[in-house]
Amino acid sequence: LKHTHYIIVLRHMVCGCPKKCLCHSTSKTVDCRNQGLVEIPSHLPPETLILQLQNNHIWRINQDAFTETPFLKILDLSNNSVSNLSSGAFKGLHYLQVLNLTKNLIHKLENKTFSSLPQLKELDLSSNSILNLPETLGNNTGNITLLSVEYNKLQRLDRLLLESLPNLKVVLFKDNPWQCNCHVIGLKLWLESFLYRGGISDGIICSTPENRKGKDLLKVPYEMYGACPPTAAHVHLANVHHHNSEYRSSLKHTHLNENGESSHSDCEPKSKPRPVSLRHAIATVVITGVVCGIVCLMMLAAAVYGCTYAAITAKYHREHLAPTTEQRVPEGKEPFDSSLA
Ligand SMILES: *[C@@H]1O[C@H](CO)[C@@H](O)[C@H](O)[C@H]1NC(C)=O
Ligand SMILES: *[C@@H]1O[C@H](CO)[C@@H](O)[C@H](O)[C@H]1NC(C)=O
């Protein structure tokens, strides 16, 4: 491999710089900005570290587009017309650290698009039309520290994708039509843990369903997902004990919201189970009240009976023991009274 690079270097020392670009040999930077390019220029100097291709009309990246420049560290393709990225587009860029693809027309990404970039640290996919991200960005993406998917058309994001980026420090989610239904619980839990570990994010603002529009995902209480299918919600919720007080405080609020909600998808938290459980609760309270009332009445009856019995007994005793008592009292009283007089 090194030998081939050496031959390429020799060839390009003769060929020089592509016509529409400026090649700075000391900084090993090639500047091809604002040139109306429609493809990656060929005959790039092989020692290039920084390649600036922004503000062009590049719409296609060939399989072998960068094989001539294996040492690239920074590749800026922002503000172009790239709509499709083949999985081999960045093949051979073993040293690439920064890849800027912002302001393009990308709508789909393949699983292995970034697999060949083991050193990649910053990936900017903002301002595209991405509808879906794959479960992973590739096998070798463990060095990514910054990921931006701002200004796309993402409705959801698989938690597995984020978990495959253990060194992530900054993740930007802004301006996507995030769907805050059952699917989002995994993402919410991941984001909470990410922020707790000191990660930086601009957060997720819900777009749908209607009653959560404009709400910060982190502030949508877990109680909202009480009616989600077990796999989506309860397994996660079982592990979240510290949010219990949050659920309770928002319980009343939730009932009102859920009732006003029209559920479209199967995964939408359903509003029906909750009034049923509420009715159960009311029934329980009523039954408990009735039982308590009966017990109270019985106790009252027992008390009344007890008092009456005691009164009768006392009366009986007074009538039968009266003479002895009457005899004794004046006797005790007399000396006392005389001493006072
Ligand atoms: C994007 O590139 C076009 C030329 O292709 C240029 O006219 C425009 O100003 C650029 N936009 C930004 C925001 O740089
Ligand atoms: C991250 O980069 C280092 C070199 O800086 C490399 O040795 C390592 O294999 C990379 N890790 C992953 C997971 O790709």
Task: Describe the protein's architecture and organization.
- This protein is α/β, with parallel strands linked by helices and 341 residues long.
- It has seven helices and eleven strands.
- Among the domains are: 1-176, Ribonuclease Inhibitor (Leucine-rich repeat, LRR (right-handed beta-alpha superhelix)), CATH 3.80.10.10; 275-324.
- The longest helix is centred in the C-terminal third of the chain and has 68 residues, at 273-340.
- The strands form two sheets. A nine-stranded mixed beta sheet has the order 1-2-3-4-5-6-7-8-10, with helices on one face. Strands 9-11 form a two-stranded parallel ribbon.
- The protein is 35% helix and 9% strand.
- The structure holds 2-acetamido-2-deoxy-beta-D-glucopyranose (NAG) (2 copies).
- Residues 118-119, 140, 142-143 line the site of one 2-acetamido-2-deoxy-beta-D-glucopyranose.
